[in-house]
C-alpha cells in the first residue's frame, strides 16, 4: 500500500464545476515591493518614504529629494511609532523645535520612551528617515509634523552625529527586515527638511496651518482598505494549502476494511476548512468593494467633497480589524488542520502567520479600530434618534422597526429570518447589528446617569461597543457577499458561490447564536435546522473544494508550500526539502565533536 | 513627562490582597529535562528513551542498555510517527520481520510515506532509536512493537549501513531540536533488540502475547494529564507578561487633561486578559486534579483493577484538547494585547507560542481527542438510557431530569440557574453538557435510520460530538475550580479566587450563550444581567490583577521576558536588549558593502 503521489481532486470528474472560477487574488496585494508577499528591508522606502514625498513634499523638495530616492542613493523609512507610544499619536514625544536664528529645526528624543521604534529598514539599511515629531515654534506646539532626517553618511553609511540608530532585535517573523530604533540628540535640520506641501513654518518661525486636517485621513483609509485585501490574500493561501493537503493526506478508517480516506472526507475537517474558504471568498469581495469605494470617494475628496469620508473611515477601521482577526485565527486553524506537517516551515503556513499577524496591530490596533467604528455607529444612532436621515452602511439605524427591537424572551416575538434565503439572512444580520448598537448606546446612557462623565461611560461600555462594531462589520460582509452574487452570470459558478455565501452566513449565526436568539431573530428550532443545513452545505461543497482553491490561482512558486503543491506529490518533496536542511550539509554535525564527545568523556 | 520606570502594581496598597497566594505552577512541568521549559536535543533521550527502557525492557535488556544510556554513550530517541501516518497508529507501515534462520529482525521502510518523521534528536544527535514497527513472524502480523535500533556508529557517529537519517528542516519553533527522519533499508537486528518485557518472540519465531493490552494505555493517560498542566503553565506565563506590561504601559486619554492611564484600566484590555487569568487558575487546579487522579488510579491498575481507566482515559483525552486549545489561543491574545512589543522576541510571547502550539497536535491530535471523549460520552449515555448506574464525571447522564431536557422555546421552560451562585452555575454547565450529549446521540440515531451504517452515522454527527465533548470538559473545569474553593481557608484568598471562578463560569456562558438559551437554562434577561455582572467582576479584579500573576511565582529568569519583568523597567531594558541584537555588532552591516553599494552603482 503506497500513500504517495495521490493527487488532490483537481480532476473535473470529481467536482461538478465544469469551469474553474477565475478569481485571481493577485491585485489585492501591494505590488510596489520587489518581491510581493515577502517582507524586505526596502519595503518602507518603496511603500512609505517615496509615497510620502509624493504626497507631502513641495515642488522644491521634490526636485531635491525625489530622484536621489528613486535611484536608491537616498534610502528612506518612515519613523512614527516610539518605544512608549503607538496608536495614540498625540502621545508621541519626539520634538522638533524651530530656531529662527539659524533657520533650523532641532530634533530630540527627550526620554527613553520617545525613541523611535519598529520602522522597517531603519536599523541598518536606511540613510534617511521621515521622522514624525511635535513641532514647536515661537513658543507654541503645533502637533505632529513630518521631517526628512539624514541618519547615515551617504558614502560611509556611518551614523551621523547626534544619531543613535540600530536594529531592534529578533521578532516573531519579519526576520528579513531590520526594524530599527532611532534616538535623536540635538540633530539640526535646515528649515527645508520639513515636509511643507500643506503646513508650513516661515523663515521667521511663523506657523501656517494646513488647509484641511482631513487630507491625511485619506492615506489611512487607503492603507486600511488594502489590509482587507491582504486578509483575503493570506486566508486564500492558507486555505489553498490546507484543502489541497487534506485531499492528499489519508488517515484512519471511516468504514472497516476500506482504505484510509482522504482527511477532507471527515466532517470535522470540512467544518474547520470550508467556513474559512467561504470567508476567504467573502473577504476578496469586500476588498474589491473597499478599493472601488476608496477610488470613487477620492474623486469627491479631490473636488473638496468630504461628505462620504467619515463613513468610509469608520468602515475601513472596523473592516480592517474584523478581517485581520478572522484571517489571523483562520491561518492557524488551517495550519493545525494539516497536523504535524503544518508545523514544518515546508508547509509555508508558519511564515504566512508570522508575517500576517502584525496586521492586527499595525495601522491601528484592532480593538482601537473597533472602537473608532463604534464611535461612528453610536453617533449615527443618536442622529437617527433625532430624526436625521442617514445614508450608507448605517442607514439601517433609521429604519423604524429597529426602534422597537428590544431584547426580550425569544419565543415572544415572531422570528423574521428565512434560513434558506440569503436576502433574509442579510436582514437578520442587519437587525442583529441594530440591536447591538442600541444596547451599546443604552449602556452609555445608563452609565452617564450613574456617573455623569462621558469618558468613563464610554470606557465602561467598551465591551458592548466592540460587540456592536463586530456585528456591524459582519452585516456588511454578508451583505457584500450577497450583493456580489448578483453580478455573476454563469449558473454553475453562481450556484457554488451561493452555497459558499450561505455557509458563511449560517456559520456566522451558529458562532453568534446567542445574539440572534436574544434579539428574537431566530427561534430555537431554527437553530437546530441551521446546524443540519450546515452539514448539508459541507457535503455539497466537498466535491468542489479543491476547484474552489485552485480558482484563487496562486501558483506553486508564489505559494511556496510543499503541502500545498498543485501536483499533490507531497511526501516525496517533503523528503527532498528535508534533505536540503542546513543541518544535513554534513553527515556528522559539528555539535558531536564540540559537545557530545566532551560531555561523554566527563561522565 | 517620562513614561519609564513606572512599576506594575506590586504595591500591596494598590490591591486588597494582603497575602500573595502561593500557587506555584512549577511542579506542573516535566522536570526531567536539563533546562525545563526549553526544548533540547536530548529531551527525547531523557523523556522517552530512558523511560521506555525502564517500562518495557527485560532485566537482561536493562543490563545491556541502561547504564550506557544513562552515561550518554547510547543517546536514544523514540521513533513512532511516519511521514504519512500520525494519530492512526494501525496505519504505520514500518516493518520488522523475524528471520528464525539468523534469529534476527529485518527492519524496513517500504515506502516514502513510511519514513520515520519528527522524533526530536533523531536527525543529528542520537545514535540509537526505539523504533515502532509492525511485527511479522512466521507469516503473521502482530501489530506494533518496539525495537532498539542502533543508527550511528558509536565512535565515529556516522550513520550505519542501511540507515538514512537526517534533520527534517526548519520549523515554526523548536529550532534548538534536530527533529529527524529515518529510513530503514534491510537493517538487521539481533532478536534481543525487541523490547520484550510484555510481548515476546521466541528464538523459533513463536509470538507470545502481552498479558494485557491496557498497560500501554496508562502512559498515554499520564502524558495527556501532564499536558493539561503544561497548558496551565504556558497560560500563566503569558498572563504574567501581559498583565504586568499592561500595568506599565500608558496610552491615550481616559479623562481629558489627565495623564495617560495604564492600559490595564481599559475595559477592553481587562476583558481580554482577566478571563484568561481565570482560565490559567482553572487549568492549574485541573492539572493538579488530573495528576492526583492518575496516581490514585495507578495504584488500582498495579493491583489489576482497570475499572476507572476508561473514565480517566476519556477525561484526559478531552481535557488535553480543551486546555491546549484554550491556552493556544490565549497565548496569542496575551501577545497581541501587548501591542507591537508583543511581536518582539524580547517579550518571550512568540517563543511561548511556537513551543506550546504543537501540544494541540502531538500526543493525540485535538479533534481526534475530542472524538475519543465523545465516544465514551455516547456509550455512557446509552448505558444510562438502558438503566445502568454510571459513576465518575459522567454520572449526570443518569440524572432523571436530563431525560426530559429537550431543546425548546427558551421562554417556555423555567430557568434553573442562579447567576451569582457558583454551585448553580456548575449545575447549568452540567445540564448544557447533558443536552449536547443527547443531541449528538440523537444525531447518530437519526443518521442510522437514514443510512444504516455506524461509521457514516458517526462521521455525519462529528460536529455535534465535538461540541458535546467540549461542553463536558467545560463542565468538568468549572466544577473542579468550584470544588477547589472548598479547600481554601484564608478568607481574602477565598474571596478573590471566588471572583475568578465566577468570572470563568460567566464568561464561558457568554461565549456559548446560544447553548444556554437553546437548552432553556438561562433567560434573555439573565444574559443581560450576566454581561453587566462580568463588567463588575472585571473592576473588582483590577486592583488584584498584578498580585494574582505574581502569585504564579514565575521568576524573571524563567519568564525571560523584557515586558514581563517584575521591576517594570520595561523600556530601558528593551533598549538594552535591542542594542545586543546580532545585527548591531557592527555599525555598518556587511549588506551595505555587499548589496546596497553595488546596486546603487548599477542604477
UniProtKB/TrEMBL annotation, chains A, B:
Superkingdom, taxonomy of origin: Eukaryota
Active-site annotation: 363 (proton acceptor)
Location (main, coarse): other
Pathway: Lipid metabolism; peroxisomal fatty acid beta-oxidation
Key word Metal-binding present: no
GO molecular function: acyl-CoA oxidase activity; FAD binding; fatty acid binding
Subcellular location: Peroxisome
Residues noted as binding FAD in the record, renumbered to the chain: 81, 120
Limits of the Acyl-coenzyme A oxidase N-terminal domain: 33-75
Domain Acyl-CoA oxidase C-terminal, first and last residues per copy: 421-599
Keywords from the named record: FAD, Fatty acid metabolism, Flavoprotein, Lipid metabolism, Oxidoreductase, Peroxisome
Reactions that this protein is recorded to catalyse: hexanoyl-CoA + O2 = (2E)-hexenoyl-CoA + H2O2; octanoyl-CoA + O2 = (2E)-octenoyl-CoA + H2O2; octadecanoyl-CoA + O2 = (2E)-octadecenoyl-CoA + H2O2; decanoyl-CoA + O2 = (2E)-decenoyl-CoA + H2O2
Family annotation (InterPro entries): ACOX_C_alpha1, Acyl-CoA_ox_N, Acyl-CoA_Oxase/DH_mid-dom_sf, Acyl-CoA_oxidase, Acyl-CoA_oxidase_C, AcylCo_DH-like_C, AcylCoA_DH/ox_N_sf, AcylCoA_DH/oxidase_NM_dom_sf
UniProt GO cellular component terms: peroxisome
Cofactor needs: FAD
GO biological process, one term: lipid homeostasis
Domain Acyl-CoA oxidase C-alpha1: 217-378
Homology family: Belongs to the acyl-CoA oxidase family.
Protein's name according to its UniProt entry: Acyl-coenzyme A oxidase
Organism: Echeneis naucrates (Live sharksucker)
Amino acid at each position: 500500500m503506497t500513500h504517495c503521489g495521490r493527487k488532490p481532486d483537481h480532476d473535473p470528474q470529481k467536482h461538478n464545476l465544469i469551469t474553474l472560477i477565475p478569481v485571481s487574488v493577485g491585485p489585492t496585494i501591494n505590488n510596489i515591493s520587489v518581491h510581493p508577499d515577502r517582507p524586505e528591508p526596502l519595503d518602507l522606502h518603496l511603500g512609505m518614504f517615496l509615497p510620502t514625498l509624493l504626497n507631502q513634499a513641495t515642488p522644491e523638495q521634490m526636485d531635491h529629494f525625489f530622484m536621489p530616492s528613486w535611484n536608491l542613493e537616498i534610502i528612506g523609512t518612515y519613523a512614527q511609532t516610539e518605544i512608549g507610544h503607538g496608536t495614540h499619536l498625540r502621545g508621541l514625544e519626539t520634538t522638533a523645535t524651530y530656531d529662527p536664528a539659524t533657520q533650523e529645526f532641532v530634533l530630540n528624543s527627550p526620554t527613553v520612551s520617545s525613541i523611535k521604534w519598529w520602522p522597517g529598514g531603519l536599523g541598518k539599511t536606511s540613510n534617511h528617515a521621515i521622522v514624525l515629531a511635535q513641532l514647536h515654534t515661537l513658543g507654541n506646539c503645533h502637533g505632529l509634523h513630518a521631517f526628512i532626517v539624514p541618519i547615515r553618511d551617504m558614502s560611509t553609511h556611518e551614523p551621523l552625529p547626534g544619531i543613535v540608530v540600530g536594529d531592534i532585535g529578533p521578532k516573531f517573523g519579519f526576520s528579513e527586515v531590520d526594524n530599527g530604533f532611532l534616538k535623536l540628540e540635538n540633530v539640526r535640520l535646515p528649515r527645508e527638511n520639513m515636509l511643507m506641501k500643506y503646513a508650513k513654518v516661515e523663515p521667521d518661525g511663523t506657523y501656517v496651518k494646513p488647509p484641511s486636517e482631513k487630507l491625511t485621513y485619506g492615506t489611512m483609509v487607503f492603507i486600511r482598505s488594502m489590509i482587507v485585501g491582504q486578509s483575503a490574500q493570506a486566508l486564500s493561501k492558507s486555505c489553498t494549502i490546507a484543502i489541497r493537503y487534506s485531499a492528499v493526506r489519508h488517515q484512519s478508517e471511516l468504514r472497516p476494511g476500506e482504505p484510509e480516506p482522504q482527511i477532507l472526507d471527515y466532517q470535522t475537517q470540512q467544518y474547520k476548512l470550508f467556513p474559512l474558504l467561504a470567508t476567504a471568498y467573502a473577504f476578496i469581495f469586500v476588498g474589491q468593494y473597499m478599493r472601488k469605494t476608496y477610488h470613487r470617494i477620492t474623486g469627491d475628496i479631490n473636488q473638496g467633497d468630504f461628505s462620504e469620508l467619515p463613513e468610509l473611515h469608520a468602515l475601513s477601521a472596523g473592516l480592517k480589524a474584523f478581517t485581520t482577526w478572522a484571517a489571523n485565527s483562520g491561518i492557524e486553524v488551517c495550519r493545525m488542520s494539516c497536523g504535524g506537517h503544518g508545523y514544518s516551515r515546508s508547509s509555508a503556513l508558519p511564515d504566512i502567520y508570522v508575517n500576517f499577524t502584525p496586521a492586527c496591530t499595525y495601522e491601528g490596533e484592532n480593538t482601537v479600530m473597533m472602537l473608532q467604528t463604534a464611535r461612528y455607529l453610536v453617533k449615527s444612532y443618536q442622529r437617527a434618534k433625532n430624526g436625521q436621515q442617514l445614508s450608507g452602511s448605517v442607514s439601517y439605524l433609521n429604519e423604524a422597526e429597529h426602534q422597537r427591537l428590544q431584547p426580550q424572551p425569544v419565543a415572544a416575538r415572531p422570528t423574521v429570518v428565512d434560513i434558506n434565503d440569503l436576502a433574509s439572512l442579510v436582514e437578520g444580520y442587519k437587525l442583529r447589528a441594530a440591536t447591538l448598537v442600541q444596547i451599546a448606546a443604552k449602556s452609555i446612557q445608563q452609565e452617564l446617569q450613574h456617573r455623569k462623565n462621558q469618558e468613563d461611560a464610554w470606557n465602561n461600555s467598551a465591551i458592548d461597543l466592540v460587540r456592536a462594531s463586530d456585528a456591524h462589520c459582519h452585516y456588511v460582509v454578508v451583505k457584500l457577499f450577497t450583493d456580489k452574487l448578483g453580478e455573476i452570470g454563469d449558473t454553475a459558478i453562481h450556484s457554488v458561490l451561493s452555497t459558499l455565501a450561505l455557509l458563511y452566513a449560517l456559520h456566522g449565526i451558529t458562532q453568534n447564536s446567542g445574539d440572534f436568539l436574544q434579539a428574537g431573530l431566530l427561534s430555537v428550532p431554527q437553530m437546530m435546522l441551521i446546524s443540519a443545513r450546515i452539514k448539508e452545505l459541507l457535503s455539497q461543497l466537498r466535491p468542489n473544494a479543491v476547484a474552489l482553491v485552485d480558482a484563487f490561482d496562486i501558483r506553486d512558486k508564489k505559494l511556496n508550500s510543499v503541502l500545498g503543491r498543485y501536483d499533490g506529490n507531497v511526501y516525496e518533496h517533503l523528503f527532498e526539502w528535508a534533505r536540503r536542511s542546513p543541518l544535513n550539509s554534513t553527515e556528522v554535525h559539528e555539535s558531536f565533536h564540540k559537545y557530545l564527545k566532551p560531555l561523554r568523556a566527563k561522565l
